[in-house]
Design a protein that fits this description.
Blueprint (H helix, E strand, L loop, with lengths): L2 E8 L4 E10 L4 E6 L8 H11 L3 E11 L1 H6 L3 H20 L9 H5 L16 H69 L4 H14 L3 H20 L4 H21 L3 H21 L4
Helix pairs in contact: 5-6, 5-7, 5-9, 7-8, 8-9
GO molecular function: hydrolase activity; RNA endonuclease activity
Family: Belongs to the YicC/YloC family.
Protein name: YicC family protein
């Protein structure tokens, strides 16, 4: 199920941040976190909290932290800065010795080098507790969007289930209508065979009965009706029912295939094909459900 939420915050101490949380459909749960350097300790609690909100889909959570100039300067590690300046001096000396001209390096370019600031949660980085508390409204907004989409998809699925139920009833009517003509054809076939061949009438009657059983679709229609009832119950239940619905759609498809293979009647076959199409369309929509 798709979802999106974004949020900005700050701690009043020169730190600002922005969250972005998005999800797309997926068969399992795939959590991807993009956190700034020095805030890796947030990954475990954020993963735990996300898994409490989402159970299916590909979810990406991004956090960007921005710091004011004063806060960034205060977070610089003097020893690392000195080492970086010494390395730059060595590079410039080697270039001069080789006769290679080098451009001057500005303070801003030096400050942009990675690793000059203290990677710990010291000055210049927001506290993990502050960020975790700020993530809660983000998760609430994200969940609200997914619930809204889920309600819309549930309404669509309910309509598609009504369509499937109507086709199942039409199949039941068509199956009942073909019963007498089919029996008449079988009786005519039996009479023809008995008149032209020396066969045991009892054995022939047994074979005809087996043929009638093989073309009987009563059980398939009964199971399709049961599947409709089960699907409607899941939709009414709410919550993460996507996997259950997906399994149920496989069972729908199995019964529809058997119905078509047993049909031996143009009207019933046409209904069976329409039923298979409706099931396929519903199954595609079920892939969007958590």
């Amino acid at each position: 199920m798709t979802g999106f939420a974004a949020r900005e915050g700050g701690d009043g101490q020169g730190n600002g941040w922005s969250w972005e949380l998005r999800s797309v459909n997926g068969r399992g749960l795939d959590l991807r976190l993009r956190l700034p350097e020095g805030l890796g300790a947030l990954e475990a609690p954020l993963r735990k909290r996300l898994s409490e909100v989402v159970t299916r889909g590909s979810v990406t959570l991004s956090l960007r932290v921005s710091r004011e100039t004063g806060a960034q300067a205060a977070a610089l590690d003097p020893a690392r800065l000195a080492a970086a300046l010494a390395q730059l001096a060595q590079i410039r000396a080697a270039a001069d010795q080789a006769g290679v001209a080098t451009a001057p390096v500005s303070p801003a370019e030096i400050l942009s080098l990675r690793g000059l600031s203290d990677p710990g949660e010291g000055p210049g980085l927001p506290a993990a507790e502050t960020l975790m508390a700020d993530a809660e409204p983000l998760l609430s907004a994200f969940d609200a969007m997914r619930l809204s989409e889920g309600a819309a998809i549930a309404a669509v699925l309910a309509g598609q289930m009504d369509r499937i139920a109507a086709l199942v009833e039409a199949a039941g009517t068509a199956a009942a209508a073909r019963a007498e003509p089919q029996a008449a054809r079988l009786r005519a076939a039996v009479e023809t065979v008995l008149a032209t061949a020396d066969l045991d009438p009892a054995r022939l009657a047994q074979e005809v009965a087996l043929l009638a059983v093989k073309t009987d679709v009563t059980e398939e229609i009964d199971r399709l009706r049961a599947h409709v009832a089960a699907a409607r119950a899941l939709l009414a239940e709410g919550g993460p029912v996507g996997r259950k619905l997906d399994f149920l759609m496989q069972e729908f498809n199995r019964e529809a295939n058997t119905l078509c293979s047993k049909s031996q009647d143009a009207a019933l076959t046409a209904i069976g094909l329409d039923l298979k199409l409706a099931i396929d369309q519903t199954r595609e929509q079920v892939q969007n459900v958590e």
